[in-house]
Amino acid sequence: MLTVENLVEEYKRTHPGSQKLHEQAVKTFAANGATHMNRILDPFRPYITHAKGSRKWDVDGNEYIDYVMGHGALILGHSHPAVVQAVQQQMAKGVHYGENHELEIEWAELIKSMMPMAERVEFFSCGQEANMMAIRLARVFTGRRKVLRFEENFHGWADELIREDSAGVVADEVNVIPFNDLNKVEEELATKEYAVLLTEGGGGLLGGRVPIDVDFARALPDLTKKYGTIWVVDEVVTGFRDAPGGWQALVGVRPDITVLGKCVGGGLPVGAALGRADIMEALNPRAPLERRIVHTGTWNANPLVCSAGVAACKLYQSGEPQKKARQLADYFRQKGNKVLKEQGINGRLYSRTTPHLYLGPIDYEPPDDTMPPTRDIKKITDTAMVPIQARLCLHLLQRGIATMTGGFFILSAAHTREDIDQTTDAFGDSLDAMIAEGTLGETLRAR
Ligand SMILES: Cc1ncc(COP(=O)(O)O)c(C=O)c1O
Q1: Could you give the CA distance from residue 257 to residue 292 in angstroms, rounded to a whole number?
Q2: What is the DSSP code (8-state) at residue 387?
Q3: Is the CB of 156 under 6 A from ligand 1?
Q4: Over 80: is that where the pLDDT of 2 sits?
Q5: Does residue 160's CB lie within 6 angstroms of at least one atom of ligand 1?
Q6: pTM score of the predicted model
Q7: HEC profile for 311-357?
Q8: CA 428–ligand 1 middle distance (angstroms)
């Protein structure tokens, strides 16, 4: 029986196999035994053996409803039969020919059919690689060097992309400015020094923890055009998750370059840059030397990834998986917000697709729960909430619910309403326990 005082002890007792593997891993992996910063948790995260649909299981036989969903790559759920079949068949035919092949064309054409801005397509091994290429393409096209980015937007860990909280390694030519401030954007762009303006589709952090103002987004194409800057929209999270046409289709904007990752590979590692033919012409070996970019990459469009990507994109085209995940997100927010209200907690689940958990003062009543109950970005990203979310994450894990940080719930079309009923019950129990043990924090109690 889980009592409020002994969560860590209970967790260790029910996860002995994971604890043993964690103790082994810390001797090898510098990041506290993990290979990704979001897989670090005190005392340790479960070690997973297999996954299917909305669920995954650990070495100790514990079952989880999964809201990590491959860091957002699995809108079809774990091991969708169409993807598994395609990959198994391709595996037997050859993983990598080191040659051109038909599947890469089929995959790129499927992408083009969903994203009309994609006059040309280029494949990579991951999202950040595609972002790096987008920056390079923009630099060559404009003859400028500088990169303009927004605070609270995430694009990867390379020098041009990394957030500023990482040991001062942000590249010199990068300028990071506040989000949703059009005057500031214009002031910077007017210097005509910027090759590129990078913008995360849907808002900052995993599909829009920090929502983007739609009017702001809609003003960016004209503003970048006016000052000769290339507008790159990073749809690594939102591409094919928000809609077949991505976030840009929902708001009606057309970037010069779109970057994809995660879902587009159907669960296998990938990145893609899609863009205007004149900008991507730099990849043509016949382009003049001073305007030419070499692109190598052992794993670019290898047949195995292409087979998964084709199978997944065929399913995305209908818009049905996205619709189902969105409907489940609505149901999740509705039930989860009832829990928060009944327990008198200052907080709200919000967003268009992935429900994000805001914990903090409610100083604004949005028209609906697609938006957080504050317009103050600092409150949304308040780092004081990180340990509280981590505690919630552990409580949820102990109740069979896996989240990445305790701060958001990534849904797929494989989740069910029963999964969500079970999850919101566990969410309520976890919050009850946190109130009782005093880890929720007095400021979050509304009464
Ligand atoms: C918006 C966004 N862009 C880029 C990336 C980097 O993609 P990858 O991890 O595939 O390099 C991520 C990863 O989470 C992301 O969320």
Answers
A1: 17
A2: H
A3: yes
A4: no
A5: no
A6: 0.97
A7: HHHHHHCCCHHHHHHHHHHHHHHHHHHHHHHHCCECEEEECCCCCEE
A8: 31
